[in-house]
Amino acid sequence: DLLVVGSANADLVIGVERRPAAGETVLGGDLAVHPGGKGANQAVAAARLGAATALLARVGDDGHGRLLLDSLRAAGVDTVGVLVGGAPTGVALITVDPSGDNSIVVSPGANSRLLPADVRAAAGVLGASRVVSAQLEIPLETVVEVVRNLAPGSRFVLNPSPPRELPAEVLAACDPLILNEHEARVVLGDACTSDDPEDWARLLLARGPRSVVVTLGAQGALVADGSGTARVPSVKVDAVDTTGAGDAFTAALAWRLGAGAGLADAAAYAARVGAAAVTRRGAQESYPTAEEVEAL
Ligand code: ADP
């Protein structure tokens, strides 16, 4: 019922005492390889909650691609739409120092080869999906093609990350546009003159989406549509690692909307999922089952 269109990356993480300066070599700890990328994260998060979830993405014909496919299948994601080949699997090279500060290089690789033609070839799944969720770690033209091929009555959810200005055609399709504080500021650009998320939500709504959700980390979220704005409280937890919380939130929200929930109810559920995700390390490894969300 849920189709995620987006990225799949291998996150290669090395802990270091100090991140290297130009021309410098430093020794780090053992390499850790984690399945990541916003598309794959969302698909795994939704499937773990019990949603019937498919992913349209592209990985390389290499070990990282197989690692991602294994992780997706283990979570129960339908991987028929995960295309293989054309470029190496997308990779994020991450160094983390003891204070938690990191330096990251991303090679989009196969993600940059997920093209509009791939979307047209997947018209069958697209037409059969009640909710379609996308992010921006794939080419924008590909997201535009998704919007043009939505089935009548299906719902489009976009997390504009990494953030950039968006064409009107994409904005008009979003229901909701879902973004964190940083993403909201970038999407608004010069129009962002206030520090109040309620102002951002109003300004964003005026650009065409039918609804907007601003996620506010430990402060929960804000939902806005034609009928007004509402705060969604967060759940108090001991946060261990917030990596991938936004992806879990978006996946849960998209799934609940597809199941017929209203925006505020879907966001309240998503806030519980996001809270559960920050209580454990990692992204995909941290995502809860529906039972774990109930127990929170
Ligand atoms: P992103 O990961 O995209 O930056 P946020 O940090 O806003 O997104 O987190 C997404 C959602 O996850 C929040 O709206 C909130 O519901 C939940 N969440 C994130 N951090 C915490 C936290 N420290 N405590 C409780 N809930 C959290």
Describe this structure in words.
With 296 residues, the chain is of the alpha/beta class. The chain has one domain (2-17, 30-295): 3-Layer(aba) Sandwich (UDP-N-acetylmuramoyl-L-alanine:D-glutamate ligase). It is 35% helix and 24% strand. It has helices spanning 38-49, 63-75, 116-121, 123-128, 140-148, 168-173, 181-188, 197-205, 245-258, 263-278, 290-295; strands at 2-5, 9-15, 32-36, 53-59, 82-84, 90-96, 102-107, 131-135, 155-159, 174-180, 211-215, 221-225, 228-232. The protein has a nine-stranded mixed sheet, sandwiched between helices. The protein has a four-stranded mixed sheet with strand order 3-2-6-7. A hairpin with a 5-residue loop joins strand 11 and strand 12. Helix 1 (38-49) crosses helix 9 (245-258), helix 7 (181-188) crosses helix 8 and helix 9 runs antiparallel to helix 10. It starts with a strand and ends with a helix. The model has no long low-confidence stretch (mean pLDDT 96). Bound molecules: adenosine-5'-diphosphate. Residues 180, 215-218, 220-221, 234-235, 237, 239, 242, 245-246, 249, 271, 274-275, 278 line the site of adenosine-5'-diphosphate. GO terms for molecular function: ATP binding; metal ion binding; ribokinase activity. It is found in: Cytoplasm. Homodimer.
